[in-house]
Amino acid sequence: MSNGTNDNMNELEVANQKIAAKTEHLSAVLQITEAINDNLPVEELFKIYQTLLTSQMKIDKMLLYVLQGSDWRCLCQLNTNPDDYDFHAYYNFYAEPKPDSRSLLKDFEAYIYIKLNNQTVAFVFLGGINNDKVESKKERLDFIKSLTNLIITSIENKRLIQEELEKQYYQKEISNATVAQMMLLPIEAFETEKIKSYFNYIPHKDIGGDYYDIFNISEDRYIFCMCDVAGKGISAGLIMSNFQATFRIYAAQNLPIEELIAILNEKAYITTKGEKQITLILGYIDTKANTIEYINAGHNPAFLLKKDELIELDKGCTFIGMFDELFSIKSDKLDIQSGDVLFTYTDGLTDIVNAAREEFTVDLLKRYVQENKDKEVVDFVNDLHEYVFTYKNDMPYPDDISSMFIRIK
User: Fold this and answer.
1) Where are the alpha helices (H) located in 228-334, listed in sequence order?
2) pLDDT at 7 over 60
3) 327: which DSSP letter?
């Protein structure tokens, strides 16, 4: 009779201990959850995690490795030094077994790993896990895995949220920069009694490296520019913005054209440190002398369309920004008259391909310009854009595209 009573008492005691253990586990999960909800730093989460493993799980030693980016880092340790182990050799065991690659398991009783989205993102090596009347070794490992998974998942969620916030901030900054950059480019037709001009700009991305401009420097004298910074994106956009400011300052001084291009090269070289090139064509239109004087610095030749002739403006020098000094600068001067047309563009236009991988060649562009040169400047530019868009169909734009159409009245 007494033996039955003792057995019942033992069973009751074990049951109570198991209930107490489950209560402790729930308390641990609650503690971790509250810490996550309070947005505690990762270091604090791991301190709580380490305390729970030692106080509740009676773990003697532990190493926790977490995948960060493309590398593994030990973010939590207990009574051991991660420098004593070659975790990378252990991890590589899964792909290609090597001698002693499981050296970590010599000093630890067990390990668990955590997966997120089918990728292993954490390993925990544990020592001091023993069976007792309350919990088996498997039950302890299962709980430790659940606790670890909770923390690792929360850290990953924090990382994703932070990435999203940074992405939103970046997109906002890009949007602001795009608006600011567009303010540097003419958007309305430029017209006087002597000339009329219109433009089109299609950035490859939000920010581009193309720049064009035209304005008066005297009553009968105008300066125009079309340029293209090598590369795409933010770096090209920043260089373009700097070039725009420099061009505006020195172009307004009505300098000799060779002197102007030399100054622009010097300033561009300081900005780019010789690591980026800028191609451009710039020139003076003199409606009193009826001339156009230009320099082409490695840019696509502009087209001067006269009544029965297309002249390519290809005289000049090398591109600017790569060398501290330009050599062999040659300008050219041509006669113009009422009705003549000047068309200039960036190479994104002739880099376009259609679905059949056929390029929109310079010859196609010449033909279009010659056939449509009598259109109003706004219609010409808009119709060219529509023509190119139809030509490429669903193919993406390969680069920034700028074009400028100038008619002499």
Assistant:
1) 233-251, 257-272
2) no
3) -
Name the DSSP class of 297.
E
- Alpha carbon distance 62, 81 (integer Å): 10
**Percent of the chain scoring above 90 in pLDDT:** 40
DSSP at 99: T
CB 342 within 8 A of CB 303: yes
Q: Within 10 Å of residue 184's Cβ, how many Cβ atoms? A: 15
- 3-state secondary structure at position 50: helix
Low-confidence winner among 1-10, 275-284, 300-309 (lowest mean pLDDT): 1-10
Which residues have CB under 8 Å from 187's CB, separation 6+? 199
DSSP one-letter code for 298 = B
Q: Helices 2-37 and 42-55 meet at what angle, rounded to 10?
A: 170
- The CA distance from 326 to 320, in Å, is 8
Handedness of CA 13, 14, 17, 18 (dihedral sign): negative
Token pair for residue 294? 């230009």
Nearest to 328 by CA among 278, 285, 265: 265
- Tell me which residue has tokens 């373009």: 240
- DSSP sequence for 351-365: T-B-TT--B--HHHH
Q: How far apart are CA 174 and CA 171, in angstroms?
A: 5
In angstroms, rounded to a whole number, what is the distance separating the alpha carbons of residues 349 and 345?
7
Q: Which domains are assigned to the chain?
A: 2-162 (3.30.450.40), 184-408 (3.60.40.10)
pLDDT band at 97 (very low <50, low <70, confident <90, very high): very low
* pLDDT tens-digit readout, 164-217: 777 777 666 666 656 666 667 887 889 999 999 999 988 776 677 889 999 999
pLDDT tens for residues 47-84? 888 888 887 777 888 889 888 887 888 888 888 888 88
Q: Which of 343, 350, 407, 402 is nearest to 184 (CA)?
A: 402
